[in-house]
Amino acid sequence: MKITDHIKNAKGKTLFSFELLPPVKGKSIQAIYNAIDPLMEFNPPFIDVTYHREDYIYKQHETGLLEKISYRKRPGTVAICAAIINKYKVDAVPHLICGGFTKEETENALIDLQFLGIDNVLVLRGDARHADSSFIPTPGGHAYATDLLEQVMNMNNGRYLHEDHDAFKTDFCIGVAGYPEKHFEAPNLKTDFKYLKKKVDMGAEFIVTQMFFDNSKYVDFVKKCRENGINVPIIPGLKPITSSKQLISLPKVFHIDLPEDLSEAIHNCKSEAEVKEVGIEFMITQCKELVKIGAPVLHFYTMSNPEPTKRIAQAIF
Ligand code: FAD
């Protein structure tokens, strides 16, 4: 079922959902089931699975030759989605990224998804490879989420690459990313909104936000979206803090602010166990407020560690 229909059917009740990372190469599907099982009691109507672009390293041979070796650390997104649908009978939402795919490969991936009965996709540009300092598009692929979105919308209208006959119309419900604190590359919030609006005008039907820890950022973002004519559901992305290292890593990697009261409380913790408690309690308060203001879904970035999310969901749902 489409995510927009799940939200409609909930008639204003806040839903619970979460995101998983494919396990690192070499783990079994049981790693995924272990990350899902503890959260099924909260009836997630959908589960997202991230996509990870291939990365590369250079290996120096004895001869002096420098060999570029490409590898993918977390393969398996599409197969994991199929396993989730099969085992749990809930909608699986694969993330679809520009990086690492030619348009031809994207089309084939979308055909696979459609054959598997997947109704929703989250369309993204994707992160830069760790070895690159910024995002480099794949030759023959897409540079922005808008370009990838156009390809998915074309297929929804029966237009495939190099096909001029009456082709089957896919019916993907498309989500895109939104950034309450601005995407780090956008020169200003206004420009970022311009592209978000473009994504929605092109056919995106829901937005999932980057994590935030200050609900006023989400409230302002929703207000600005509505003022800009963006009227699709805006699903808040939420990440419980579980370690003191995240005081530095989250702002650095995700370009978000941590509120002063949260960062002070973590600074004052005497152990990592205490940090985890502070992170969970903070998020319970944050989630209660989000439910009160009518967030359609609370969507948790679990990093495939279900326990903190379970504690929060127990307090909310
Ligand atoms: P875009 O919408 O393409 O925007 C990128 C930048 O370009 C922005 O600054 C925007 O303002 C600007 N821009 C947008 N369109 C245009 C245009 N047409 N012309 C010029 N400028 C433009 N990364 C992964 O690799 N895998 C994942 O599974 C993944 N899941 C994510 C899930 C969520 C909910 C979020 C919020 C992020 C996720 N990311 C993931 C990270 C995401 O890929 C990065 O934040 C990336 O840098 C931007 O992706 P985007 O889709 O927002 O890009």
TrEMBL record:
Its EC number is 1.5.1.54. Gene3D superfamilies: 3.20.20.220. Its cofactor is FAD. It is an enzyme of class 1 (oxidoreductase). It comes from the Bacteria. Pathway: Amino-acid biosynthesis; L-methionine biosynthesis via de novo pathway; One-carbon metabolism; tetrahydrofolate interconversion. Keywords: Amino-acid biosynthesis, FAD, Flavoprotein, Methionine biosynthesis, NAD, Oxidoreductase. It catalyses: (6S)-5-methyl-5,6,7,8-tetrahydrofolate + NAD(+) = (6R)-5,10-methylene-5,6,7,8-tetrahydrofolate + NADH + H(+). GO terms for molecular function: methylenetetrahydrofolate reductase [NAD(P)H] activity. Signal peptide: none annotated. Belongs to the methylenetetrahydrofolate reductase family. This is Methylenetetrahydrofolate reductase. The lineage of its organism: Bacteria, Pseudomonadati, Bacteroidota, Sphingobacteriia, Sphingobacteriales. The gene is metF.
